[in-house]
Amino acid sequence: MEGDVSPKIQMLEAAVAVGRDSLRLAEFLKFFIAACHVKMLCQIVSHSSSSGFFPAIVCREALCNQHFIFSHLSLSPDSNYSKLKFIISSSVTEACNNSVLLLGPRGCGKAAVLELVIRDLLIDHPDLISVIRLNGLLHSDDNCALKEIARQLCVEYQLLFSKMASFQDNSQFMISMLRECGLAHTTIVFVLDEFHHFAQGKQRLLYSLLDAMQSVTSQAVVVGISCRMDADQLLEKRVRSRFSHRKLLFSPPSKKEIDGLLEGILSLPLDSTLPREYAIKFNAELQIILADKRFKDIFDTLLESDSTVHYLLRFLFLAVSSMDVTSGLLSLGNFKTALLSMQRQPKLECLKNCSFLELYILVCMKRIETREPNTYNFNSVMEEYKAIRDRSLPHSRSACLRAFEHLVRCELISFMNSGGYKQSIELRTVKLLVSSHQLRQGLKSNPFCSSNLEKLLDQKCQKL
Amino acid sequence: MSSEGRRQTRASLASASNRDVETHKIATTHKPTINDLVLGNEPLSLENLLSSFPGRRLQIDEILRLLGPLNSPMLPLFIYGGPSTGKTSVILQIFKHLKRPFVYASCLTCYNPRILFESILNQLMLHQRNKENCYSSAKRCERPSDFVNFLREALINILDNLKGKSGKSGPKKLLEHVKGYMIYLIIDNMELVRLWDKSSTMLPFLFNLYDTLKVPEVGVIFISKVPPDSYYSNTGYVEPIAVYFPGYTEKDIRQIFMQNQTDPKLYSSFLDHVLGPFFRSTRRVDELSVAFCELFKKYCEPSGELEKEGAKRSLFNHLRPHILPALNEIFRISSSEVGPDDEKAKVNESSRKLGHHETTEEMDFHMPFSTKYLLLSAFIASRNPASHDDSLFDPTGGCDNRKRKRKCSVKTMELKEMAELESLMKGPGTFPLERLLAIFHCIVETAVEIPVDGEKQEHSFLGTEIGCNELMSAVLLQLSTLCNANFICKGGSCPLEGSTRYRCTISEELAFKIARSLKFPLSNLPASASVTFTSSRLALGEQEAVSEALPIFVVTLTQFGVPTIDYSLAVEFALGPSAGATTRTPHKDQWWSLQVEVVVVANKVEAVVTISEFVGAAQEAVVDVSIMGPPKMTVLESIVVFGSPKWTDMGPLVPEMGLLYWDELIYWWDEELANRDQALLETLQVSTRSRKDEIASLRQELSILREEKD
């Protein structure tokens, strides 16, 4: 905002010169305050009041659009994008079968890159590619998967789909469709998301698919997507032998790529419906933030825990959603709040939420645990509680049992064996799910905690 | 679930307006339209929204920001926080404020995938289950794969409707309430999905729903009581954006309770007294409101002289005695609200919850006599080790042939500790069927022996009935009834014996209540002990000789487990020709007076029995200790007898009847000591309370002496 200082002063002088009477001065000051923001914003604010707030939506749309994001990462010639595109397009142009596995941790954009490739290929060769999408979470059952393949093929070629068809029928149908497509020089791309789920059981689907591709003069590509690096090892021998061992490894983007991505996602396009001047101002503001040392610190702490694209997107989404509505610009504060809500410590939050009685019970359990780990239940907790009870707390069993149940529900404590639900709650062995460090921190953050309670926790530590 | 179902929200605020909608809908049975995807007709301003949720301003702001302006896409949200922190209400009211279409499904009511899927689809397809379509759903959908297809179809359909609304003139009027073309799926109670059969695929599927659908105009919101990290074990999804609802602070709670109060001043002064102590126990609004409801009624009782200055004070004084009990039996819903036909529910509750029914003296359900006896025998079998059965039920004593250890060795002390720990860990013990039946026979026999007026006939009838073998099936039938009612649970079968073992799960209160209704001496039976001294030298003909050297007994007991607060101990001393239940009452020609002083310190009970006067003759002395307390939880530690040498060749201590641990019993008779330490004996006769330490030192000395002697 340094650039705005001189106009401000000019305006102030003008105000003093023009506005002798207080009313006009006040009006002028109001205008002046508005003008302290970027000049162009005046238009924007008037614009935004009519049709919702635009810049935020543009950013959010950009964040929710996978194609847009990964097109930034796919520019270099040796990227996975170009490799994958080469594989599939060679199959389209040279009429051959192919199979490939996309492996990498979650949130690296395996499926998104594939979608991008398919989209671009569909533009290049319309009518020559049809895509069948399966998901291991949905179609891990072989029967169900073949039915889904048949259904999608029917939709693709405007055929009548029979729900009653058996596995055999559907399999026959798929093979004949493969043959037909091969004759028509159309490529069918089978996308198997969550590939490792298909590799469970007898793998009949994979076998019949890969077998059909070998025996029939077909033209198909099987693309498996999995987060398990050993996904190809899961395959049976007969399936593995029919599978080309082509693998594309995806890894989280490098620091440099992330920097490019940041800028690419957040900066507003100049040719959109937004006023051009505003977009320029917005982007300039963004550049200042990105260059800021403090922002870099925030960003580094973020990437320390996770540097996948999805994680980054969540962070940016939080930042954009906390954008100031009146100014319409991103600020450093937005990123700070986003980082705070990314770094949550649920256990501590839970502990902060506990009532005094519940804290007391936790401390009792901690004390017992150091003495006799793994063998205590509510009855022994009650014994301990009676020994160190605070006068202001209720002494009855039922009240404590209630608090105990709360703790179980908050998952601060849990029962040791899940099988013992025939027994009543008092008798089942329990364990703490918080470490003593967490408990101590929680005690400190809890508004009810007395120093006495902390002392009780420390006493036990001295005993050890 | 019909589309009405989702209108049931937990907020009392919303329920009023919802009810209007519902009755309206039922009355006219109109076809649901897209308008029904928006909650409520009347507008809700942001100020109203914020003021109706005290202490939730930050969360509402955050959610509003994340939902974004109209028609902006959204990544999945995950809202979590403890129970009764207003998650569901806040979300629903926010959507009421925004007037955006949404679909709400709770995994609590939709308890399996199929019902969840169909509920969502019914709402989206504007399908209403009614009589005409035989309450069937719009689509039959069991598999996630079908669900995704149907859902995508339905969403695209709805979105076309919503987007096309500006184009057509016809439905424009219809859709004036709905804002924007984003549609939101709200899935409540996500933590329950973890308990479903296919949770390992369902959870990743639901969390990935947004990515799988590939419809950018859909926003997915999850509501959960547990934090996101408790879902980590089911890996395989990209984490949603988390919003946390913290618990209310004391100030917020006060604001919440002050809402909709007719007499704010009175209620505020009531909260001054009550909120503090209760807030230390729980921070949940629902529990607090139940507790406060009752208390406030009590508080208002003497509200005649409100206008006076001291009224506040007197009101508080009136209330004060009620606070602590209410705090202790926190949040019991009074059973008066439960209808009389809900007996079964109450039975279950009383069996499950310890200490919830101590106030009611009578049993609040009916049970046949033989079933009561069966239950009592199961209780006795569960609470006492099998080795004590003979001492309990054999009239001849049954264990005088056993040699007793005179001293508590380290090993027995350890064993005792182990037993203590075990009783804490395992609770009531298990028993085989044979033992249950044996005890059942025994106690039915004693019941016949002790005729109780009014029930005499039934008892004797019962006795004969049970005596017959052919009616054993009836008893077994009742056992299975008790098992079904969860009074007795079938444990795992013992691998060695191969037979099924049972465990009694009823609380002591319930057992005593049943015993009371049968007039069965349960409280005396398990925890009483008597010691009989037989002696030929105890020919107490010469009155003078005896009275100068009457013995003093110091009885020490330990109670562990769950010490009862109202603990009473009665020590009875009897001299008579023979020991037995019938002769324990004094004969005509005998007369004595006893002084019993009882000290209860922590879990040790000490009773000093002094015989001050004695007239008559006896061969035997019987000390009968009966304790009104929990059975098995009491151990007779020692009975120490101080007295004159005339009592020397007192026979062995014979436990006559009782379930105490006799292994630990020591008795001490020492001529030497008695002669030497007359002074000590004298000190015993001073006030018992101050004597506590002396008794301890005395005992120490005794043990030293004993060691020397050994």
Automatic annotation (TrEMBL), chain A:
| Protein name (Swiss-Prot/TrEMBL) | Origin of replication complex subunit 4
**Role noted for this protein:** Component of the origin recognition complex (ORC) that binds origins of replication. DNA-binding is ATP-dependent. The specific DNA sequences that define origins of replication have not been identified yet. ORC is required to assemble the pre-replication complex necessary to initiate DNA replication.
- Subcellular location, record wording: Nucleus
Q: Does the keyword Magnesium apply?
A: no
Keywords of the record, alphabetical order, are: ATP-binding, DNA replication, DNA-binding, Nucleotide-binding, Nucleus
| Superkingdom of the organism of origin | Eukaryota
What PANTHER family does this protein's entry cite? ORIGIN RECOGNITION COMPLEX SUBUNIT 4
Q: Does the keyword ATP-binding apply?
A: yes
ATPase AAA-type core domain residues = 100-246
According to its UniProt entry, the protein's GO biological process terms are:
DNA replication initiation
Q: Which GO terms describe its molecular function?
A: ATP binding; ATP hydrolysis activity; DNA replication origin binding
Q: What is its main location?
A: nucleus
Protein's organism: Nepenthes gracilis (Slender pitcher plant)
Gene Ontology CC:
nuclear origin of replication recognition complex
Start and end of every Origin recognition complex subunit 4 C-terminal domain? 263-442
The entry assigns this protein to a family as follows: Belongs to the ORC4 family.
TrEMBL record, chain B:
Gene Ontology terms for molecular function: DNA replication origin binding
Alphabetical keyword list: ATP-binding, Nucleotide-binding
Per the database record, which ranges form the Origin recognition complex subunit 5 C-terminal domain? 367-524
Can the keyword Signal be found in this entry's annotation?
no
Q: Where is this region: Disordered?
A: 1-24
Q: What Pfam families does its record include?
A: AAA_16, ORC5_C
Q: What InterPro entries has UniProt attached to this entry?
A: AAA_16 (IPR041664), ORC5 (IPR020796), ORC5_C (IPR047088), P-loop_NTPase (IPR027417)
Which residue range or ranges hold the Orc1-like AAA ATPase domain?
53-209
- State the GO CC annotations: nuclear origin of replication recognition complex
A Gene Ontology biological process annotation?
DNA replication initiation
Tell whether Nucleotide-binding is among the UniProt keywords.
yes
Gene3D superfamilies noted in UniProt:
P-loop containing nucleotide triphosphate hydrolases
Q: Its family?
A: Belongs to the ORC5 family.
Q: What is this protein called?
A: Origin recognition complex subunit 5
Q: What is the lineage of its organism?
A: Eukaryota, Viridiplantae, Streptophyta, Embryophyta, Tracheophyta
